[in-house]
Each structure stands twice: as structure tokens, then as C-alpha cells.
Known about the structure:
Layout: H1 2-24, H2 31-37, E1 47-54, E2 57-65, H3 69-74, E3 86-96, E4 99-100, E5 109-115, E6 120-124, E7 135-136, E8 141-148, H4 151-155, E9 162-164
Parallel strand pairs: 2-3
Antiparallel strand pairs: 1-2, 1-9, 3-8, 4-7, 5-6, 5-8
Amino acid sequence: MKFRSALICALPLALMACAQQGTANEPAPSASQQAQDEVHPISGLKIIPVTVTAGKVKHVFRAELADSREAQGKGLMFRTELPDDAAMIFPSVPQTARSFWMKNTPLPLDIIFIGTDGRILNIAAMTEPYSLESVYSDGLTSGVLEIRGGLAAELGIGPGDLVEW
Length: 165
């Protein structure tokens, strides 16, 4: 009887050890996969890496993916800070000309319009907080990237640079 009680107590421990050993052999998720699994604490949007190649320099942003009509409508409204490595990406599906405004947005932003070839068409730099005036793309876009106002100039990002996400 004592042997059976000891076996019953030991069995769960043995099973837990086997289960833990199995997970140790699984490959660790890559940095890219971890970024794709992250969710922004304020917006609840998925965070993805967005790379802007300016000449020979690559700038990587942790961008909130605004891929729904609701998320695109809200954008960065009501945000009081935006770190230099943070951004929001607005895919254009279907590819279309875009316009943005700064309603309820207290931070100046650089609004980067990305052409259908993945290259920057134009940048509405240092947009005026709370402005209801629209800024426009210079053609059809595959997406729009918003970063802290003035950062594009500081990093040397401009028209013709490649944006990938």
C-alpha cells in the first residue's frame, strides 16, 4: 500500500519533468517573431518591425499596426508621448491616395506617405497638433507611417527612401 501511494505521488512529478524537458528542446522565438507577438499597452494593436532604409542606414521602428478601419480612424489621437523608436503604420488596402489630419492629437508628427513601390512619396513634417487641416499623399500609397515630429529630418529620412514592413 505504501508503494502504491509513493507511486501515485511520484507520477505527477515525473510527468511534469517530461513536459518541461520537451519545451526546452523547442527553438526560442526570433526577435522578429517576438516583436510580432507584442501588443501595445495603450492601443492594444499588434507591434511589428518597420524598417526605413535611408541611403546605407537602416532605421527600425516598433510600429503599432493600424490595420482596421477603427484603428486607422483613431491613430495616435490623445497620445502625449511617442518614443523615437515607436511608430504607427497604416496599410492602404486597397492602394489609394491618402489624407490625414491631427484632430485630437497633441503631439507633432511626421506623416510619411509610402508609395506603391515601398518608397517614400512625401512627408508632412512637424504637423500641427490638433489641426483639422488635412495633409495629402503625392500619389497612391501602400501605407502611411507616423513617427515623432521632426524625427525624419533628424535621421535623414526623405522621399525615395525604402520602407518595409
